[in-house]
Every structure is written in C-alpha cells, then in structure tokens.
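Example 9 (inverse folding). The structure is encoded as follows.
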C-alpha cells in the first residue's frame, strides 16, 4: 500500500509498507543537506550560578568590590555624670582677752569665762563622673555657732608686806622690835599693835594681847 505525504519543501515522498523499497526524495528537498543541530544553552535563572561548559562546575563569582560584611566600630558608652550637695563643718577658733583685777594679788590669774570654739558650715556642689570627683564648687559659707571669747582676770593688788599675826601692819622681817627699845632689829614697829595670831616677834611682853604698848 502506498501513500503520499506533502513535505514542507514542496516535494512528494513515496513510501511503501513492508516489502516496498525505501522511499525516494524527489525535487529540491532530496538534494538539500540536513541542517546541523544547534544545542541550545540554557540561561541560568536569576540568583543561580552558571555551570562551566566543560566540567560542569559553577564559574567563580566575580568580585564586586570591598566586602559588605565589614562591622562598624562599637561606640563607647556615655559617661555617668552625678551632682551632689556636700556639707562640711570647720571649727572657728575662739579668742582670748585679759582684764585687770585690783582685788586680786599681783601676778594671780583666774579664768572668768572659758573660751569655746565656734562652727562654720560650708556647702559645696560636687560633680562626679564615673565615680571620680572632678569638680567642687562652694555654694555657701556661714558661721552657724559663734565662738565664745575666753576672759582671763589678772590681779594687780600689791603683795602684802605685813605680817598677818598683827594689826595694824607689822613688817615681815627676820626680826622685829619695838621702836625705841633695846632690840637690834633689823625691823622696828611703833605700837601699840594687837596680836591676832602668834606673837612670833615677842612684842607682847606682858601677854595682854598688845605689843609695844
């Protein structure tokens, strides 16, 4: 059984089933050489690497410049700044004053008013950065307790030159005799004098309480 096919080149190809000779190409189509096969190269999808035409290994990626993975330097933490109010107390030294007292024996000294130190209060503003004091500013200074001046009395009364065993005054000496008598002194007294203590100079010879009478 024979059939006729229309070729795209415009000729006819005659063929036979089993037992028929091979069909013969007629016309210009039989004279044409078959076109060489062209292998299509698949284009890589976006994001995929291309394969090497020989080994099938992916081609190395081209360098596009400095690495984008460079880390930025870590910024230092901000310093901790604190401001505090500090109060300090300092002593204020008391003064001293001396007064003359004629009722006291010359050379004697007595404290009449005891001195007391005062107190000065100082207020500061202190700046502390990261636990370290960097500034100290004085805000106020005031005497919160006044000092008390010490008063010392100094005697001006001349020391007594009279023996306390007699009155009126009998001079103090190694020996005292009645004036106009036979005694040889070195000191003399004109009587009468009253003996109010011990008759150390033996002026009261008759023991009536009076000497040189």
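The amino acid assigned to each position is listed next.
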């Amino acid at each position: 059984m024979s059939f006729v096919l229309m070729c795209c080149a415009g000729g006819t190809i005659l063929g036979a089933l089993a037992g028929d000779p091979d069909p013969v190409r007629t016309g210009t189509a039989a004279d044409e050489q078959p076109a060489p096969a062209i292998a299509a190269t698949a284009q890589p999808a976006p994001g995929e690497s291309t394969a090497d035409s020989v080994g099938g290994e992916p081609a190395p990626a081209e360098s596009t410049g400095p690495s984008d993975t460079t880390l930025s330097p870590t910024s230092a933490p901000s310093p901790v700044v604190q401001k505090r109010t500090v109060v300090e107390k300092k002593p204020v030294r008391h003064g001293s004053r001396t007064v003359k007292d004629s009722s006291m024996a010359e050379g004697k000294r007595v404290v009449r008013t005891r001195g007391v130190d005062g107190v000065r209060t100082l207020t500061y503003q202190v700046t502390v950065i990261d636990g370290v004091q960097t500034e100290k500013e004085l805000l106020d200074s005031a005497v919160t307790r006044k000092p008390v001046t010490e008063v010392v009395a100094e005697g001006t009364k001349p020391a007594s030159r009279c023996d306390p065993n007699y009155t009126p005054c009998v001079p103090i000496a190694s020996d005292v005799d009645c004036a106009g008598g036979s005694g040889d002194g070195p000191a003399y007294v004109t009587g009468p004098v009253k003996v109010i203590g011990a008759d150390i100079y033996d002026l009261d010879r008759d023991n009536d309480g009076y000497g040189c009478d």
